[in-house]
Amino acid sequence: MSFPSLQIGDLVAKLPIIQGGMGVGISLSRLASAVANQGGIGVIAGAMIGMREPDIVKNPIEANLRALRSEIAKARELSPNGIIGINIMVALTTFKEMVKTSIENKANIIFSGAGLPMDLPRIFLDTCEEKKEEFKTKLVPIISSARAASIIAKKWQSKTGYTPDAFVVEGPKAGGHLGYKYDELTDANHSLEQTIPEVVDTVKALEDKAGKAIPVIAGGGIFSGSDIAKFLDLGASGVQMGTRFVATDECDADIRFKQAYVNAKEEDITIIKSPVGMPGRALFNSFIEAVREGKKKPVTCAFHCVSTCEQEKTPYCIAAALIAAMRGNLEKGFAFCGTNVSKIKSITSVKELMASLQKEYDEFRKNF
Asked: Which of 79, 76, 73 is nearest to 38 (CA)?
């Protein structure tokens, strides 16, 4: 049995798989276009996307927007007919400018979390006010609860009349920054299996009122084709996967970053207290150990990238740490990861990964 397609408005992905947006620099145009070419939805991460620009410190806004335009153009050149999304965290100081730039450069979808994206539809409407027929970017909030879906939908409707085009629900097993309190990460009441049906029920009422389908996408800890089948059976229309796509040839990270995933053991996974004020799941290493021992000391903020970062209190710059890790220098940074990273045993191509997920999905359907 083949995968069902995933439809978000007038966009139809052949496979119900969204590659999660992974910053800093882990998912850029190369990975996103490879996923899109295989029938999934490829996603470029906007966080510190301008890290390679020579003026990133002097002109961070211009550098990030320039890089964003460049990455969208590269992805579109590599995948002319694929679906390309942009992940833009609400907490970014350049949030408004990056949303506007993504829309103007015809990104297919904007995925937005790390806060409730209350202003997203207003920015969209202001951007395309004079030429609405030219701009068809879909707006998809990333949430962790049915309550968040309801709050966002009501606020969007009351302020702009816009209804979200879909929702991504990230559970507590996801990699990177997590929208949960520490004690909620292991609470069954907050598990993705518990949350997806709740969000689906909430969204059904929104669909009836809006007169359109609003797909719910499950993310966080999804590793195999059988996992995909499980969440589709729970009512999700698709899944978001991040960790699996890191260990691919096309991933934009350094080979040493990818190899850290291949070498990871279950006991290497840890939860950190991020400078941006959220817990995060990462691979434990000497850098994290030094932070916990108080050996890292606050530094001058060079990038001013995240509005929630407490610069005067933080023992390290998370942007610098993630840039170093992406470049393979894990002694000066660390790798975010999902809870199933230890299951990865080798680096493969995106095409091979998609084929293996299809095979696992087929086998699961045949047996059950």
From this structure: 79
